[in-house]
Amino acid sequence: MIKLIKIIYFIILSFYFLFFPNVNAQEKIKIGLLVPMSGENKEIGESIIKAVGLAVKDIDNDLIEIYPKDTATKANQTLKSAFELSEMGIKIVIGPVFYESLTYPIQDYEFEVKRGMKNSKIKIYKDYEYNIEPTKLTKQIEEITNYRIRKQNLEDEIKRIKNSNDPNKEKKIKRLEKRYTLGGLNFDAVVIADFDESLKSVSTSLLYTDVLPKNKYFITLNQWFDESLLNETDIQPLYYPSINKENFDSYKIKYYNAFNEDPTHLSLLSYDLIGLVYYLSMNSKIENLNKIFKKKNSFKGKIGIFDIKNNKINHRLNFYKIEDQKLIEIF
């Protein structure tokens, strides 16, 4: 059974479905959007609205009506907007998209990460939260990897060889002097729940303690095919789950052709969520979407396949690795 160190980083983006009862497939399909239309995340909200409009255009059915409401990435404004949508009789709401828009404590997101690891059936050796401030991060990584003990092991071994009669001791000492530590680690992989420069910082700190990706699997979250990772050869191979790259590239072209700008990652998800709602509303004999989402079902969208069961939507992901500056699809 594989053992892992799990390093937790809070994920700030999340999609939700809010349902009000009695959606009828024969009625207008009114969909509310709780997105940031003002404030620091305004551009992301605008991108989501454009993607939803693109999905409606592609579906080409007059039954669909979209009602955006501003969250301003604030809990009180989100609650107000959700209430307004309910008062308007809108029964399906997509959003909000930032945890700051909710009243949930941040610990709930940590719990979701931990629960996901638990449900994976993988045996966890240790899990840690870390501070991205460089000095604090380095200290934490040293503690996680027993750096001081392993550093002392290295110094002791070099001293032992120097005092020995080994005819090859000079070569052995030179080889050891290229290392930071000496001694094994009782885990097989590291799961780093992070992105961008912070991901690179954690990975580099692990290298400093002789936790190398050629010996221990480096696994992370969906990186949305961050091209800058291709140049980080020291932390390769790097593994991560992701949406299908071919589908992702096709969507980006479609969006750019429509709006002459690149889409945000969240807009990609919202595009397919509209198709999912339409599919469930028009192709099921069950009139209540609450019941539909409790029933096991699957939906194939533009970016992939969604599985629905017990009021949850799971997006089937591919698995990729970056190695030798190349992106390789594993499955």
What's the short story on this structure?
This protein has ten helices and 14 strands. The protein is α/β, with parallel strands linked by helices and 331 residues long. Helix 1 (42-59) packs parallel to helix 9 (265-283), helix 4 (134-144) crosses helix 7 and helix 5 runs antiparallel to helix 6 (169-177).
Commentary on this structure:
With 331 residues, this protein is α/β, with parallel strands linked by helices. The chain contains 10 helices and 14 strands. The protein has helices at 42-59, 75-87, 107-119, 134-144, 147-162, 169-177, 196-208, 245-259, 265-283, 289-294, and strands at 3-8, 17-19, 29-35, 64-70, 92-94, 123-129, 189-192, 217-220, 238-242, 297-300, 305-309, 312-315, 318-323, 326-329. The strands form 3 sheets. Strands 6-1-7-8-9-13-14 form a 7-stranded mixed β-sheet, with helices on both faces. Helix 1 runs parallel beside helix 9 (265-283), helix 4 (134-144) packs across helix 7 and helix 5 (147-162) runs antiparallel to helix 6. The chain is elongated. It starts with a strand and ends with a strand. Residues 6-23 have low confidence and may be disordered.
Q: What count of helical segments does DSSP give?
A: 10
Strand count, sense and closure of the main sheet? Answer: 7 strands, mixed
Terminal residue distance? 21 Å
The helicity comes to 40-55%
Low-confidence stretches: 6-23
Instruction: Assign the structural class, choosing from mainly alpha, mainly beta, alpha/beta, alpha+beta, or little secondary structure.
Output: alpha/beta
Strand order of the largest sheet: 6-1-7-8-9-13-14
How much strand content do the residues show? 15-25%
